[in-house]
Amino acid sequence: MQKVELSSDSFGPCNAFPTSLVVLLHGRGDTGRNLVGLAVQLSKRLPGTRFLLPTAPPGPHGLNSWYETDHTGNLDERIYELHRQLMQQIQFDCQKFSLELAQVAFLGFSQGSMLAGLAALQLSRPCAGLIVLCGGVPWHLDVTDALSQTPILFVSGKCDRTVTVYTTRMAQERLLELGAQQLRYLELPDLNHEISPKVVELVADFLWAALPQSKDQSIRIPDGMKVSLYSAGYEARTGAIDGFVQSEDKYWVQMDGPDGHRELIESGAFTQQLHTTLAGQSAILVGKRLADDGCIESLSVAVSEPSAEVLETKQIAPHRVQLPVGAVLQLGGMKKCAKRLQCLDGRRVRLRQVLQDGRYAVEVQGEEALVRVHPRHLVP
C-alpha cells in the first residue's frame, strides 16, 4: 500500500504561528499543490490559517486517487489506510502548533470529499467544520455525537455532470439520517464540476464563522509601544504604536517630532524600541547574540551614562536585562526544555509579568494559561 504523499510546503501563515488548520483534499487525478491557489484566496480572509495540502498516491489506473470502487460501488481499502495516515499527520501538526480539533476544518472537492467526510465525521469531538464541494460522503460511517455539533457546508452544481445533484441530494439525506444538525446544503444553478469564485466566497464565509481562532486573536504589539523605523536613504525615525489594521496586517504609528503625524506602516518596516532597565539605569535594547541552540547568549544595550553625550553599548547576560512588560518577542532555544514546552519554540509571545525568580510569565498564542520562561529563551 503506497502512503499518502503530503506536500512538504504547507501554505501559510508566513509571519505568525497558525491559529487554525484547514485540510484541502483534491479530486481524482489532481494534486494537493494544485489547490495552493485556493489556499491563497482563502488566506486573504483567514491570515492566521495554515493549509495542509496532501496528495493522493497513484491508483491502479495511474491517476492520483484516494480510493477505487468495485462493480457495486463499494470503496476499496486504500481510503481507510490513507485516512489513517492523514489523521496521523493532522495529529502531528496539532501537537506541533498547539491546535485543538475545534480549530481544524476539512474541505474535500469531488473524490476528496469522501476522505474529508471520513476524517471529519468520525471524530470523538467536533472539528471546526466540513466542506463538501461537488462530491459526497461515505455511506457507512461510524459517527459519534460530535456529528450533530459539526458545521457542514455542502455545495453542488446543477450543471455538474460528474457528480450530479441526484447524487449529492442522496448524500445530503444520508447526513441528515446520521444526525447532522448544522448542515447547509446549496445547489448553484450555473456551477459545473469546479471551484468557482462564488464557491470560494461561500467557503471563505463558512470558515470565517467556523474557525474560532481565525479572527483577531493574534499576538500583536500593544498600543503605546515605542518603535523605530528605518528606510533606505533616511535617518531612523521613532514613534509609538497607535492601532492595528488586521485586514492589511499594518500598524498605525504616531510619529515623534513637531508635526506628530500618523502613518499606516507594515509590521516588517519597524522594530520595537525596547526600553529596558539595567542596574537602575534606563537603556535601549539594540542587538542580540544567539547561542548554537537558539537561546540568547547576550544582549546589546545602549546606556546613557551621566554627563555623557553618547550612548555606551554594553554586552549583557539576558538575565540582567529587565524587558518591558507588553513587549512582543519570540521564543527560541526551547528544544532542550521540558517536552511540554518544546512545541513552543519559535512562537510569538507577549510579556505579561516579571516573576520573583527572574523568569517571565508570557502569553502564548493558542495557550489558555500563562507560560513561565527563562530570559535566555526570549528572542527580541
From TrEMBL:
<feature type="domain" description="Phospholipase/carboxylesterase/thioesterase">
    <location>
        <begin position="19"/>
        <end position="207"/>
    </location>
</feature>
<dbReference type="InterPro" id="IPR003140">
    <property type="entry name" value="PLipase/COase/thioEstase"/>
</dbReference>
<protein>
    <submittedName>
        <fullName>Voltage-dependent T-type calcium channel subunit alpha-1H</fullName>
    </submittedName>
</protein>
<dbReference type="Pfam" id="PF02230">
    <property type="entry name" value="Abhydrolase_2"/>
</dbReference>
<comment type="similarity">
    <text>Belongs to the AB hydrolase superfamily. AB hydrolase 2 family.</text>
</comment>
<dbReference type="GO" id="GO:0016787">
    <property type="term" value="F:hydrolase activity"/>
</dbReference>
<keyword id="KW-0378">Hydrolase</keyword>
<dbReference type="InterPro" id="IPR029058">
    <property type="entry name" value="AB_hydrolase_fold"/>
</dbReference>
<dbReference type="InterPro" id="IPR050565">
    <property type="entry name" value="LYPA1-2/EST-like"/>
</dbReference>
